[in-house]
Amino acid sequence: MTNISTKLSALTLLAGAWMGFTAQAETQENLYDFANNNLNLEVATPADWEDATKGVISGQEIRQGDVVLTAVDGVKVNRMWRTNAGVQYLQVGGKITLTADEGRAITGVTFTVQNYKFFLEADEGNGTLDAENYVWAGNSTAITFDNENAANEYNTQSLLLTMTVTTDEANADTYTPSTTTYAECANIAEFLALEVGTPAILTLNDAQVNGAYWGGSFLEDATGAVQVTANINVNMGDVLNGTIRLKRDHDDFDEEHIIPCAANDALTSLDDVTITSGNALVPTTMEVDALPNNDNFSRLVKVEAVTITKPSRFYFITTSDGENIQLIDQMNVGGYDLEEFVDKTVDVTGVFTWNMTRFAIFPTEVVETGATAVTAINAKTIADENVYTLTGINLGKMEIKNLPAGIYIQAGKKHIVR
Asked: 366, 378 in Cβ contact below 8 A?
C-alpha cells in the first residue's frame, strides 16, 4: 500500500510540475481567426446595414489565450462583417487594444488582411509596426492599434482576417503604457482650477498665443490665460483650436505671487491642434493701477499714456501708488529700443507676468501716445465697426453681447464674451 501511495504521489508531483511548466511556457501564440470566427462573435451582413449596433465589438473583452482584445469606436465603428460573397473579417474604424495577462508581454502581432485594407498605426508600446508586411514586433504589456486617421476618408477601415498575437514572459525591458487619468477641461479657466500636478486634456477654442520665447509661450482664450512651459513650438500671433495634453503646474516666486503654468505631459503634442498663423494680437486695455494682480498673469494687456522711467539700468512704468512694473524685452519681438522712450508718454502692449521680485511686462509693442504710426496689427480694424473673430472672419455689424462666448475685435479693441 505504501509503495502504491508513493508512486501515486510521485506521479501527481510530476503531473503538477508538467502542468505548471506548460502554464508558464515562455512563448505562446494566440490566434484571433475572424475569417472563421473562432471566437463566436456576432457578425453583421449587408442585410444589417441600417442596424449600427449589429456585430460591433466595442465595449467587449475578447480573450484568446493570455491576451484580451478591447476596442473603442472612432470615426467609424469596429465590427465583425460578412460580405454577400461569404468573406468574413473584422472592420476596424477606431482603436483596438491588446493586453497581455499579468507577468506576460506581447512580443509580436501578425495580421492577414482583406484586399490590402490595412491602415493601422501603432499608438502605444515599445515596438515597431511594419505596415507593408502587416507585422508588429516589440516588448509591451499592451499595444494599441489606431485606424482613426484613415477612417476619416471613405472606405478606409482596416479589414482583418486573422491576428496572431505572440506573448512571452515579461522582463525588465517590457514597456507598460501609461494608465494616466486625464481631467477634461473645456477652456483655460477650467484648467487653472485644477490642482497642481493634475494631467489634463485641454480644449483650445480660439486660444491666442500672446507671446513665445525659448522653451515656452503664453496662451489666452475668452476665459483666462496661462503660461505654457512645455515647448510646443508655437509663435506669437498663432490661434489654436483643438485639444492638447498638459499638466497643471505653477511657478511660485513667493507665497503671494504664483504664476499658473501648463507643463509637459508624456503625451504633449500639437497633433490634435489646428494652428492659424499670422493673426493680429488683440490686447485687453487696462489702467496701469489695475495691472498688479495675479489674475492678470499671462494676459496680453495694453496700458495707455504711461511714462517709461529708467532710475538705474532697468526700465519701468509706475502705478499711482508708486509700484514699479518692469519692462523686459524677453521675447525679442520689439523692433524698438526702450532707451528712446525713456521719460516719454507711451502706450505699452505686452504679456503681464512676474520677474523674480516684481511685476513685469514683456512688451510686444511700444509706441508714443498719439503717434500717427499705427501698427500693422491694428491698422485693418482701428476704424472698422465690423466685428471680427481672432482668425479674421468678418461677422459684420452686430451687437457683440449677443455672440457666443469668445474673443472678438471691433474698432481695434478686444471684446470678451463670457
From this structure: no
Distance CA 202, CA 250 (A): 16
Q: Please identify, among 134, 169, 204, the residue that sits at the C-terminal boundary of a domain.
A: 169
Among residues 249, 276, 303, the one where a domain terminates is 276
* Bridge partners, 388 (sequence order): 394, 409
Q: What domain range includes position 138?
A: 26-169
Q: What is the pLDDT along the chain (418 residues), one digit of tens a residue?
A: 444 444 444 444 444 443 434 444 689 999 999 999 999 999 999 998 778 789 999 889 999 999 999 988 777 889 999 999 999 999 998 889 999 999 999 999 999 999 988 988 887 567 899 999 999 999 999 999 988 666 556 678 899 999 999 999 999 999 988 777 889 999 999 999 999 999 999 999 999 999 887 668 999 999 999 999 887 889 889 999 999 999 999 877 677 888 899 998 867 888 899 999 878 888 999 999 999 999 999 999 999 999 999 998 899 999 999 999 999 877 655 555 788 899 999 999 999 999 888 999 999 889 998 764 333 333 333 345 677 665 556 677 777 777 777 776 776 566 667 6
Do 407 and 386 lie in a common domain? yes
* Grid cell of 386 as nine digits: 465690423
Cell of 403: 455672440
Long-range contacts (CB closer than 8 Å, 24 or more residues apart) made by 303-306: 303/347, 303/348, 304/347, 304/369, 305/345, 305/346, 305/347, 305/369, 306/345, 306/346, 306/347, 306/348
Closest listed residue to residue 180, CA positions, set 196, 197, 195: 197
Domain match, 394 and 364 both? no
Measure the CA–CA gap between 353 and 347, rounded to whole angstroms.
Answer: 18
User: Does 13 reside within a domain?
Assistant: no
List the grid coordinates of 342.
525713456
Q: d(Cα 277, Cα 20) in Å, to the nearest integer?
A: 62
Q: Using alpha carbons, list the distances in angstroms from residue 303 to 9, 131, 295, 337.
A: 91, 56, 16, 18
Q: Where are the beta strands (DSSP E) in 196-287?
A: 199-213, 216-220, 225-228, 239-252, 258-264, 273-276, 284-285
Tally of structural domains, the chain: 4
Q: Indicate whether 187 belongs to any domain.
A: yes
